[in-house]
Amino acid sequence: EEVLMHRIRNELLDSFDEELEEEIDDQRLENILQNITDYKGSTSFDRSQYFKELFRLQHQLVTLHDWVAASKKKVVIIFEGRDAAGKGGVIKRITQRLNPRICRVVALPAPNERELGQWYFQRYVAHLPAPGEMVLFDRSWYNRAGVERVMGFCTDDEYEEFFRSVPEFEKMLGRSGITLLKYWFSITDDEQHARFLGRIHDPLKQW
Predict the structure, then answer these.
(1) CB 198 within 8 A of CB 205
(2) Does the reported pTM lie above 0.90?
(3) Cβ-based burial of 68 (10 A; exposed 0-12, middle 13-18, buried ≥19)
(4) Which residues pair with 134 in a beta bridge?
(5) Contact predicate 159/144, CB 8 Å
(6) Residues 6+ apart with CB under 8 A from 201
(7) Residue 145 and residue 124: Cα distance in Å, rounded?
(8) What sign results for the dihedral spanned by CA atoms 37, 198, 28, 12?
(9) Are 182 and 76 spatial neighbours (Cβ–Cβ below 8 Å)?
(10) What is the pLDDT of residues 132-181, one digit of tens each?
(11) Cα–Cα–Cα angle for 176, 178, 181, nearest 5°?
């Protein structure tokens, strides 16, 4: 029993080390931001309360992902939003304590030449979940309604066809037994500007 308790303690310490790493990373970013004269953000909040709430929510996520696996559910979660709005950080927190065989993240690059000639939704279909899986899309087919439209990567006809097709596509997902959840992340222009400055001044955030 003593050996078991020692092992449990070590595993808990490993878990806290992960959170300490995150906290140190946040502090490093805050120090960088403090050197940017036009940064107006507030960095004062209760870290201990934050981690307590994070652990509570992550425990619920573990329960959810165990239920998805046991009941053979199929879940798709889409994360969309403005650049630097926090999609990546939220996805990291969600998946931090989940089994990657059950919960996986899909972040597709720009389509290659072959994919450009396919049905638009085809490359996303290849990543849809099997029974007992959760798939998190870091950006999704809604790229066509956002960055592709803004950057001129699709024609006006393709843009209009997307809006005609996407309701039917998502209805098909529902009829196939997929639960689809969609989240949009937004921040103010000033906050986005501050975060972009943070990336410029922090080489670890420039990837």
Answers:
(1) yes
(2) no
(3) buried
(4) 75, 103
(5) yes
(6) 32, 35, 36
(7) 15
(8) positive
(9) no
(10) 999 999 999 999 998 888 888 899 999 999 999 999 999 999 999 999 99
(11) 145
Which residue's entry shows tokens 């072959």?
A: 114
105 near 112, Cβ under 8 Å? no
Positive or negative, the CA dihedral 55, 88, 43, 188 is negative
Q: List, as one string, the DSSP characters of 57-91.
A: HHHHHHHHHHHHHHHT-EEEEEEEESTTSSHHHHH
Residue type, 174: G
Q: How many CB atoms lie within 10 A of CB 117?
A: 9
In sequence order, what are the residues at sequence separation of 6 or more whose Cβ sits closer than 8 angstroms to the Cβ of residue 71?
132
pLDDT in tens, 8-24: 666 665 555 565 655 55
Residue whose token pair is 């950057």:
151
Distance of CA 155 to the CA centre of its chain: 28
Residues 6 or more apart whose Cβ sits within 8 Å of residue 138: 79, 87, 88, 91, 105, 106, 107
**Is there a contact between 40 and 190 (Cβ–Cβ < 8 Å)?**
yes
Say which amino acid occupies 184.
W
3-state SS, one letter per residue, for 29-66? HHHHHHCCCCCCCCCCCCHHHHHHHHHHHHHHHHHHHH
